[in-house]
Structures are given as C-alpha cells and as structure tokens.
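The records we work with from here on pair a chain with its fold. Here is one such record, which you should read through line by line:
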Amino acid sequence: MFFDFLRGHLDGDGCIRKYQDPIYPNSQRIYVNFNAFSSKHLKWIQKTLKCLLNVNGYIRKGARTSILTYAKKESLRLLTKLYY
C-alpha cells in the first residue's frame, strides 16, 4: 500500500529524469525526485524507503520546497517497486 501512495506522490509532486552523461557518453543517468513543502514529510518517506528497500536518498532545500532525490541503482530499484 505504501508503494501505491508513493507512486501517486511521484506522479503528482515528483519527476523522473534521464539523460546522457556529457563526460561519459556511453553512460545514462537517472534520478527520481519527490518534492514537498514539508521536509518532515520527505524525511518520513526517506526513512520508510530505507527500511523497505535499503535505498539511500538525499534531501536538499530548494527555494520554496524540499526535494528528496534517488540516483543511479537506488532509483531503478525504487521504480521497479512503484511501476510493477
């Protein structure tokens, strides 16, 4: 049930970014971002995903919102669970 909630959060207030690395042209980068006004909410998501999937994300403060980001292998593990 948590992953269904999180998929809705990503669809509404998040994004998936994929691009070619300019330094390493054969390498693709992928990031999953969750945005929220409440950093407390993002810390809860981060902690829950650490317990359930053992993935590490980082939170940074934007101008108006906070952003929880997962990169590389963590983002692929997360996306596999969200879009089964």
Notes: The beta strands are 14-20, 28-36, 58-61, 66-71. The first strand starts at residue 14 and ends at 20. The mean pLDDT is 94. The chain is about 45% helix and 30% strand.
